[in-house]
User: What shape does this take?
Amino acid sequence: MIDVRQYLPAKTKTTPSGWISFSAPCCIHNGESADTKGRGGLVVTDDGWVYNCFNCGYKCGLKYGHTLGFKAKSFLEWLGVDPTDINRINLESLKLRSAMDILDDPKYKSNAEDAIHFDSVDLPDKLQFINSRHELHYSYLKTRCIDTSYPLLAIDSQEYKRDGILIPFTHSGKTVGYTIRFLDDRKPRYLSDSQPGYVFGIDIQKDDWDYCVVTEGIFDALSIDGLALMHATISEKQIQLIKTLKRNIIVVPDQDKRGLALVEKAMELGWSVSIPFDWPDGCKDINDAVKRMGKAATMISIMQNVEHSRIKIELNRKKLQKKVGN
Assistant: This one.
């Protein structure tokens, strides 16, 4: 776990009880004169750390297994901690939360087994995995910057009257549904067989990943190995399924009117939100950005724009609202 003490000023004093005193960085942000008498105090325990200013009365802290609150994040910013390190502190704290802690936390108690159970389904017959020999399908995936490492299947118009790409839905290695993206301009463009509570991309996630990106569309998720809700809302079963990953959640909404509702729900859940306003003009979602910028640049942009503070997320939501004209 990152030791917050490494970010303290050079001049400190430690008491026998473990309190470290130093000039408080919070006073000038709370209507007081700059502290020069070492009235800031910090103590580190096995459970986390606590800060208390004995001048302006500012208090904050971090309990390991939880994310930084607004006040704790502000305190670190005032110490001059780099935003990347603040994000690392959040991620490392979450990694320390044990499975038992989560099961004991009332916020996570629900019919978890029911929430993550899905019935197996059969896929249509006579399908082939897409490769370069499927010129139409392969070309479409290239235009969307999607590789074929995920098992995508070709829907042939000779068999099914329309050409399309079938994307299987899997959970714990079994097929539990699918969606077909047709390649012509006729409607419907999608035909899906999905069970309530399913989140696409769960099986893509790796055990050693510290975070996951939650987005709306399947092609957005495929672009960056993320999760797709497949709509701009989050059901209770989807929330429980995502929480089983036990990692930092970063919601990246589409930059349109529907995305505003997703930001609202993310704030309600206490999840982080990234709304990259630095994407090129015309990019309204992750897949658009990947097509214009590439996967690596898009992920860097997402991470650089992650906000954990509800206040800052709300400010960005209002900025997005103004952008989309709602």
